[in-house]
Amino acid sequence: MVNVTVNGTAVQVPEGTTILNAAKSAGVDIPHLCYLKDLNEIGACRVCCVEIEGERNLVPSCNNPVFEGMSIRTNTDRVRRTRRINVELILSQHDCHCATCLRSGNCHLQSVANDLGILENPYPADLVTGARALWPRDFPLYRDTNKCIKCMRCIQVCDKIQGVHVWDLSGTGSRTRVDVSGTRRIKESDCTLCGQCITHCPTGALRERNDTQKAFDAIADPDKITVVQIAPAVRTAWGENLGLSPEQASVHRMAAALRRLGFDYVFDTSFSADLTIMEEGSEFLRRFQAGNTRELPMFTSCCPGWVRYLKSHYPQWTDRLSTAKSPQQMFGAVAKNYFAQKLGVSPDKLYCVSIMPCIAKKQECALPTMKTDAGQDVDLVLTTRELVRMIRAENLHPETLAEEAFDSPLGTYTGAGVIFGATGGVMEAALRSAYYLVNGKNPKAEAFTAVRGSAYEQGWTEAEFDLGGAVVRTAVVSGLSNTRRLLEAIESGKVHYDFVEVMACPGGCAGGGGQPQNRDDEERAAERGQRLYALDKCSTLRFSHENPEVQALYRDALGAPGSELAEEWLHTDHDGWEMPRSQV
């Protein structure tokens, strides 16, 4: 242990502790902008500088370790003046129209500036203009260069966590800025639209394309019947920025809020997650029993960020993806073809909206392959953050609403569908039903918990299971850097699996790029995922094949998994669209 003093308070901390964390243990919070634990400890913003007794210069606290007897001062006049000047200089190159910024009230820079009492800036504005400030407004990810503070968090996340290397520095000196790497335009890049750069951005420089007005327009259109679906992972996060406790932020209270917003029918994507298991699980068994997985595995296809990654980095393996559509797209196809018939209306009357924890879902719904004769499967995708903004725009107070059930049919779901939102959940749900299809009886619901992945650890989870006398080798991975390492191991022959689940975001959809941003920089994917597993554990139904409304859908319309009509509605051609190739 090392003995130090922080503003006169003596504390003991482990050797190697940074000044920033030593101060925190003494109850002193040092403001910072660029710092991300274990990821971005570069001292670029200089906001976290402190005074050390015996040192001539101020020292950044985020990347300097303490030493025995160190005396740290975080609140001297010199520190305050320097910190204020540094923030004022950052503000001089920042678009300070906070009233029209989505991060207003939840912005690191705004919070630090307010705490420093900066009401006027002595430095002239120096904003980017012309072509350098332009960005395509139709792309699902939007970047405002004049809100960027050059903290380089996005670069580090994309490089170290995702390994895609979309962002880089361009220019020199005071004209240095963050831009798409390799002098590319964003649409020409291999960006997977995972959105991790957005959730780790401290300001409003990165955000999703805002589609809330399209949703309000559809709700107001008397000729449209609005049908909304809620992804499993959304229920774990939607209340965070609304100040709701996990108990208050229930999925049925969210259903009530969506009806108050004006949506006509409200459903849970967990229903179509159960449907995905029937199709994807049956497809896997066909491939496995035919010997199709002896050399290369079948990969899950429900994560569009992962599909984009595979098509840009390993295009030769596109045919190894399951042909099953994602639960989002399956729900849209069933809504337009089956639910519209139940309502007795034309499919073009239905406007299908998805609430997703994901940016890539916005691109997925627009793919030319994601439609049937009834039209585009899903008309609009909103992120969890956009749902929160719509609730605020209508001045709703969800905590005062009584819980409401989902509509029916298509409203019943199982615990297996709910865990789709956590890493390992898709694999576990698929194995539960695959066991039943092979053996004619259910396994114990906890029989396949060994596949549950970890949100932040390097590597992947692997497990072997006996299905009817045959050994099935499985792997589960989340985060694209981990995914690259797994694919390299498969390609080199070091490992072999029959079935692999991949989620682009660390921790799966629970840590998705469309989930709430929080100023404390705490990673919440693992905590959210555990809530999903807890919901599964207390569910009455825990096997997708036991969902009565899925059974009714097959009985009334589809016939059986993999039928001709199921192929038409619920499967897709991954070769039917192009993805820019990686430069790495």
Describe this structure in words.
With 584 residues, the chain is α/β, with parallel strands linked by helices. It has 3 domains: 90 residues, Ubiquitin-like (UB roll); 79 residues, Alpha-Beta Plaits, CATH 3.30.70.20; 375 residues, Rossmann fold. Helices cover 32% and strands 14% of the residues. The strands form 6 sheets. Strands 2-1-5-3-4 form a 5-stranded mixed β-sheet, with helices on both faces. The protein has a 4-stranded parallel β-sheet with strand order 11-10-13-16, sandwiched between helices. Strands 12-19-18-17 form a 4-stranded mixed β-sheet, sandwiched between helices. A hairpin with a 2-residue loop joins strand 17 and strand 18. The model has no long low-confidence stretch (mean pLDDT 96).
Helical/strand content category: alpha/beta
Put simply, the count of helices is 18
| Estimated share of beta-strand residues | 5-15%
Radius of gyration: 25 Å
Mean pLDDT: 96
What CATH calls the topology of the largest domain is Rossmann fold
CATH C-level name of the largest domain: Alpha Beta
Q: Return residue spans where pLDDT drops below 50 for at least 5 consecutive residues.
A: none
